[in-house]
Amino acid sequence: MYLPKIYEKFTSGYPGVFKDFQQLGKTCRNSGPLEKKYQDLANLGIAIGANSRGAVMSQTRKALESGASKEEVAHVVLLSLTTIGFPNMIAAMGWVDEVFEGS
User: Fold this and answer.
1) pTM of the model
2) pLDDT (tens digit, 9 = 90+) per residue, 2-44?
3) What separation, in Å, do the N-terminal and C-terminal C-alpha atoms of the chain show?
4) What contacts 76, CB < 8 A, 6 or more positions away?
5) Per-residue pLDDT tens digits for 31-89
6) Contact, 91 vs 47, CB < 8 A?
7) How far is residue 69 CA from its own chain's centroid?
8) How far is residue 65's CA from residue 47's CA, in Å, rounded to a whole number?
């Protein structure tokens, strides 16, 4: 799995914080009824709304790995149009396409 250099630097520089962060993520995932695929699609939508290239690409990879289809991922991007606007949706679509082209 691809990990940005800054991510690797953070995890090695702050291993205790990273461990706690991972545990918090696990606790959040286990605190509700959504299956992993739907959690990953929801997180993709959040990443799109935050306009975060790295998070959108990461969550796209995670959604695909958890069984989401490219069509489902693209639908999440399309759904963002009326909330975040055309330019931001198009940017997210480009980031998702970068992941699709690499898979």
Assistant:
1) 0.90
2) 778 999 999 999 999 999 999 999 999 999 999 999 999 999 9
3) 11
4) 41, 44, 45, 48, 63
5) 999 999 999 999 999 999 999 999 999 999 999 999 999 999 999 999 999 999 999 99
6) no
7) 14
8) 17
**How far apart are the C-alpha atoms of 7 and 63, rounded to whole Å?**
19
Best CA proximity match to 69, nearest among 26, 30, 38? 38
Residue ranges covered by each domain of the chain: 1-32, 34-102
What's the gap between Cα 54 and its chain centre? 8
Domain 34-102 fold is: AhpD-like (1.20.1290)
Q: Is 101 exposed, middle or buried (0-12, 13-18, 19+ CB in 10 A)?
A: exposed
Q: Which residue has the tokens 């949706």?
A: 89
- Indicate the DSSP class of residue 32: S
Closest CA to 57 of 22, 81, 92: 92
